[in-house]
Amino acid sequence: MRISELSDATGVPVPTIKYYLREGLLHPGEKVTARLTEYDDTHRQRLGLLRVLREVGDVPVERLGQLVATAQSTHATAHEMLAAAAAALAPTPPEPTEHRAEARSVADALIDHAGWSNVHPRSADRDNLAGVLEAIMRFDTHPSDPAEVAPYLRAADEIARYELWHLRQDTGRQGLLEEMVVGQVVFGRLLGILRRLAEEHYSAIRFGQVSDPADASATYDGP
Amino acid sequence: MRISELSDATGVPVPTIKYYLREGLLHPGEKVTARLTEYDDTHRQRLGLLRVLREVGDVPVERLGQLVATAQSTHATAHEMLAAAAAALAPTPPEPTEHRAEARSVADALIDHAGWSNVHPRSADRDNLAGVLEAIMRFDTHPSDPAEVAPYLRAADEIARYELWHLRQDTGRQGLLEEMVVGQVVFGRLLGILRRLAEEHYSAIRFGQVSDPADASATYDGP
After folding, report:
1. Could you tell me if the ipTM is greater than 0.95?
2. pTM (2 decimals)?
């Protein structure tokens, strides 16, 4: 298909497609004549991914470039490719503070407690976890006791298992990467929104006298 | 305590405290003499909240102002106060597109399916949910069938119930608001990081031949 048809098929404007081509985020089409370049389904698929990441995931262009580089490199295992993609998507860990070493120990202990033994010792998310635990400890609303974060650990564990065992197997490494990245970004956003909606609902039951709180506690089966 | 002691106690620099005072994000201290103003535990607590929101939640200053206004107004019920806070923290819904009406119907149906009947008809998160569902439908990696998103619905439901029934009751409305806001922002961030860590772990089992995949499927108890 021509660039204009590619634009219609994906909803990505032609100037944006040209920008992605210049930046190397989209691979070149096949030059048929001096004035005609053909694009195919691999271009349509990549543009769909880029559009979702930009619109929903709010992933900056530099990160998109890292992801594309990951997709193009040949890593030893699919896991290494996925880990590289996750690293490209992970936020930059917060600046270390005087309590960071302690928080990092708590973070490592929590990962052990969850049984996530395959998390790399140098995974950036270990420091991200330490940063957020430090904030929790500082505010001391909740202690950083594994029991306090148990519902979050359990939810993360269940969701990750569901996600990894529901990836389609027939799409090849490139398809696998794209599915993982969309899952990471878009379903992460979905989870955050659903949690806020559920909080709104249960806050009404708990504090709004909208329903009978006795009913609510009857359906609540403990932490 | 003096402003310098308040700074030491909270780790917030004196110029930042002065900025928060000017912006009305922090209530004035008590003027003891022309040159001495006393601050107390309410100031320490508010600064702790502001620090956490700025550092971990990455909440912009304008949103902080909305939150403080919410804390200071006297709403009819605690639920209304919490809903106003959640609205201040919710992201701006994405621009509507040609498929938004359809996505919004899917979003409303999903909220009904979850049983979250107390979500306000004009809650901004209904449009946020429509926006993310539209992205999912467009990319068509996963259909927007309630069964496909069931693990996310269940996790959101369990976490929200845990959170609402574990808020401390002895801190008054101001304390309740602060706890809810920190919970929303900081524990939301925590959940996102834990999910990525769990994905890294299970990706190694699924795709890295780190452990025996047969073991992994034995411990996996279905979606």
Report:
1. no
2. 0.78
Nearest to B79 among A90, A183, A207 (CB): A207
Enumerate the residues of chain B whose CB falls inside 8 A of the CB of residue A79. 203-204, 206-208, 210
Query: Does residue A75 lie within any of the structural domains?
Result: no
Residue A78 belongs to a domain: no
Q: Which residues contact A101 (CB under 8 A, 6 or more apart)?
A: none
B116 falls within a domain: yes
Number of folded domains that form chain B: 1
- The residues near B52 (Cβ < 8 Å, ≥ 6 apart) are A135, A138, A139, B182, B185, B186
CA A32 to chain B, closest CA, distance in angstroms equals 29
Q: Chain A contact for B129, CB < 8 A?
A: yes
On whether residue A121 sits in a domain, the answer given is yes
Chunk chain A into consecutive blocks of 10 residues (it has 223) and report each block's average pLDDT, rounded to whole numbers: 92 91 88 91 85 72 76 69 77 75 91 93 90 78 68 94 81 74 84 92 79 40 40
CB B138 to CB A48 under 8 A? yes
Query: What amino acid occupies position A148?
Result: E
- Containing domain of residue A117, as a range? 90-158
Query: CB–CB of A77 and B208 under 8 A?
Result: yes
Q: Which residues in chain A belong to E strands, given as ranges? A: 30-33, 36-38
CA B33 to chain A, closest CA, distance in angstroms equals 31
Instruction: Answer whether B59's CB lies under 8 Å from B85's CB.
Output: no
pLDDT for B85-136, tens place per residue? 777 777 777 777 777 888 899 999 999 999 999 998 988 899 999 988 888 8
